[in-house]
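Changelog note: in this version the structure field was regenerated for every chain. One regenerated record is shown below for reference.
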Amino acid sequence: MTAKSVELGSVVPLCSAQVHRLDTAPLRWGSPVFGVKWKDNYLFELRCFPAMYHISITLGFWVLLAGTPVGASEELFRQQVAPILVDHCLSCHNPERAEGGLSLTSAESVLSGGDSGEAIHSGDADGSYLLERIVPVDGKAEMPEGQPPLSDQQIAQIRTWIDDGAVWPEGFELTLPVWWSFAPLQQPSIATAEAEWARNAIDPFILRKLVEHNLHPSEEADRQALVRRLSYDLLGLPPTPKEVDRFVNDPRPDAYERLVDRMLASPRYGERWGRHWLDVVHYGETHGYDKDKMRHHAWPYRDYVVRSFNADKPYTRFIHEQVAGDVLFPGTVDGMAALGFIAAGPWDHGGHAEVPETKIDGKVARHLDRDDMVRNTMMTFMSLTVGCAQCHDHKFDPITQEDYYSLQAVFSALDRADHQYHDDPALTLRRQSLRKRGRTIQQRERKLKKEIEAAEKKLADVKKVLDELAPEDSRGKAVSAVANAADSLAEKKQELDALSGTLDGIRKELGSLPEPKVAYIGKVHYGGGTFIGRGYQGERPRTIHVLHRGSVTTPGDEVGPGALQCLEDLPARFEISPDSPEGERRKHLAQWLTDPKNPLPWRSLANRIWQFHFGRGLVDTPGDFGRMGAKPSHPELLEYLASELRQSESIKRLHRLIVSSATYRQQGTADPPLTAAAEPIDADNRFYWRMNRRRLEAEAVRDAVLHAAGRLDLRMGGAEFSGFCNRQTGTLTTLRVLPSRSDRSYVPSKGHLSLCRPLANATFFDRDGLCRSFDACGQAERDHLTASEPCPAQ
């Protein structure tokens, strides 16, 4: 009888003539006791354990080979253990990224172990290093890294599998599935509603999930509740009594739809949803950091956002303008103002204006500046945490360090600075052309002045040589040298005079143009002192290297502009000539973001819009669609909404679809029988068996009070102004974060808070004894809102 023919449960005499490993020479008598591993109900491998006995060849003995049937062990692995390894372990332990030298993709790689030796001892779970790493101590486990510990049930399943011989089916390999957010966007089939409750395509998706859990939706809210809900959601303001009466008493069957259309057409809609967008892009009107200086020209971006939402700008155009508006829509107001997106985040004034780029601190400041541009772009439009790949490949998502620094290369020529423009695109382009020509001449002028200085020194030197020659010496060469030096100097001075005349003409023409507007944007900066920028370097982007552990002092390989490799059929690196203008890099990124094959921008925005209507997204982590984020509660519904958005590119249409659904119109308080049935299953209302009850944010509360009092100033647009109360006099001026008009002559009354709608987060300090008239409060996940408070000095 050979080892391969031993059946499960049989009694086998072990002797040197009968016991073999299938892959080695015969085992000799007196060897250590052997463990067994099974495959298809047959013994196929004998593994050595520590020696316990030495038995005489003449004695012999019998061993009972018994255990869990192999078929059951394979089923345990396939159905329970393998999914645990894929979901919690494989992202770090795969052939491409074998953390600790361990890969868990196949039986061979598992048995070979890692840097710490064998991970699994077949038949001995307690002696396996894998169990040691996953069993929590005091509620914490070493693995999975960065995630909650495995459940007791999951650990028990792995323990049972190892104790039963760690059976791994032949040829079975674990692979990381494509994460849901990286998969191509597919329009799902709309479920057929089995009840009259459904009003549009959203409701069958919700109803199906409710039925799966033996639940049902709540009744529709009354008209007073609906008009109030819609008004706060779409406008951020309460409805007037007249508006409530008009809707409640409207007998037309489409009264609700007409109400939705009126609200979407209101200018207040853009202000309301502009606030949400500004929160997402972490817009601020001060620089932040320790100096926290004011940004007096950040407001054009804020007005651009409000304007775009009111106009229902196609989302592709909205993205293009914010990433590369100056390239794709040259000279246009929106193309310029939208670049405030790149400059929206914090900026280290000291690290740029006070430290040159040649010093380490200056390099760090500029590296962090580009980091903010990359993170803001990818989290806003893609809901991905690419910043985690700054120091190493992303621990959980398929984003490499090279991907991250390729994105930095896209923005490597940019800094944050003021930019002049006009309402007339032709004037903007003319001003840009004149200024660019003037800078080129100024560069030549500075170089020419240095050349003249050197030529004058040379002329003086040759004259000195000539003067020192004796009369009898040959003076021909010296005279010729003096003449040549004098002619060269004269030519350079003549050229300098011509350049000065040209510059005077440019300055005169610039002076004849209308007064320009100014916006704080991401741009190629022409500066001086320590904050030079890349303008005078021919607008050439900075060279970007992969930084070892994210340190500017340890640069690695140089990288070119690009994006992410994790999306199928999308180029990860941009084919751009090194001599191309820097804007080509941002243009390629803008087109990559909006490529129809890129599913993430549409999923991200659809989820955010749902979030602001229901208080939570279909994905609970709107800024993280990676593996560390949440999975969709209703995957097919999210696919449907994203597909509709991609097809129409209309944000207002998506609003209309959501708020017209029966899901949105439900009561906020369910009937007691439904509540009793639902709360044990779905206490946090993930399945939407009622409408979520939500707290108004500070801005809406403030506006509602002023609106109800008839004192809310609804005039729109323009620059901010700041106001503070003086502790000595108790005099309070106003802090208006979003002014309601463009008329700068408006002066607020003393002793009153601003009556305009605030659209931006602001915290202002005065170091001369003045106090804040606005304070900041936070709201989980998305908002840093602004509330007004009475002056403490009064």
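Spot check on this record: The radius of gyration is 36 Å. The first strand starts at residue 11 and ends at 13.
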